[in-house]
């Protein structure tokens, strides 16, 4: 842990490959990320419209660094989906082939089902077999291990509940898309990251997201008692990630009840009656359950699907 002192629990604004190459070998327990999909999305400080072969070559360099820095038994959870309708590319197959080629063990794939479309125009040939479209209402989380299926750790630091374990071990996860975008075009929901962190790591492990965006992985890692390393090339996204972490820290220290909508909340209602009388250890023992620290969900407003 000492050799990672300059990296852990930090928001690092820089090029992912440059930063990753400075991380020591065999030091990260879990990598969770969703890379740019190369669809021309308007990210801060990133060209998301590379020639496809160049894009794959760049990503393979990233995967090689992922393998190097994972501990034995370390896990890589890659959120990815097939791209577009007009120019369909099975990017999930290309990535899984690359990752197996460099020696990572493909352990499983999770279906993240997020169907929210209410109106659609991307039918293709309506009510006809001439050229109908299948619109993907899901994404994948591809899970890879390094060298071993087993990750060493103290059993006392396994904090997943029995109910969570049973639910998360079913590889069909219905989780609505993120409604609170925090200024990022394609964030994934905290619930998705929460499940991966609780299922695949022990408390105190180190979790990396090298395409960290606005800090979802870092925020959930902090909320669940893990260390994090957040890398992103955008100063704007890194600043938002810092703000999210600060807010999450305050909520962990002082979980507040907001009362009913429209109700004026009294100060006395915001804190339990014993507030101020508890010792630090007593207060720590009464911390809010981790899952309750995740962001509340707003109603997701779906975009009208088009032939894109």
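^ Assign residues to that structure.
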């Amino acid at each position: 842990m000492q050799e990672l002192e300059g990296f852990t629990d930090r928001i690092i604004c820089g090029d992912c490959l440059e930063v990753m190459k400075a991380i020591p070998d065999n030091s990260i327990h879990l990598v969770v990320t969703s890379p740019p999909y190369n669809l021309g999305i308007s990210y801060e400080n990133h060209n998301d419209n590379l020639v496809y072969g160049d894009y794959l070559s760049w990503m393979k360099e990233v995967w090689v660094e992922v393998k190097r820095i994972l501990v034995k038994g370390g896990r890589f959870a890659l959120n990815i989906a097939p791209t577009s309708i007009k120019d369909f590319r099975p990017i999930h197959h290309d990535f899984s082939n690359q990752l197996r080629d460099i020696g990572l063990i493909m352990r499983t794939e999770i279906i993240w089902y997020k169907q929210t479309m209410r109106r659609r125009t991307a039918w293709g040939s309506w009510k006809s077999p001439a050229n109908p479209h299948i619109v993907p209402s899901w994404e994948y989380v591809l899970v890879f291990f390094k060298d071993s299926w087993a990750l060493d750790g103290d059993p006392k630091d396994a904090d997943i509940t029995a109910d969570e374990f049973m639910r998360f071990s079913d590889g069909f996860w219905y989780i609505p898309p993120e409604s609170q975008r925090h200024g990022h075009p394609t964030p994934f929901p905290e619930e998705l990251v929460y499940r991966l962190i609780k299922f695949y790591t022990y408390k105190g492990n180190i979790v990396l997201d090298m395409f960290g965006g606005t800090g979802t992985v870092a925020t959930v890692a902090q909320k669940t008692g893990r260390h994090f390393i957040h890398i992103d090339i955008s100063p704007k996204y890194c600043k938002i990630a810092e703000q999210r972490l600060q807010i999450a820290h305050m909520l962990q220290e002082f979980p507040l009840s907001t009362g009913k909508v429209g109700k004026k909340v009294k100060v006395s209602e915001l804190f339990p009656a014993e507030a101020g009388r508890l010792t630090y250890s007593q207060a720590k023992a009464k911390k809010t359950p981790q899952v309750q620290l995740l962001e509340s969900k707003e109603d997701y407003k779906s975009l009208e699907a088009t032939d894109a």
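Residues 2-259+277-293 form a domain with the Rossmann fold fold (CATH 3.40.50.150).
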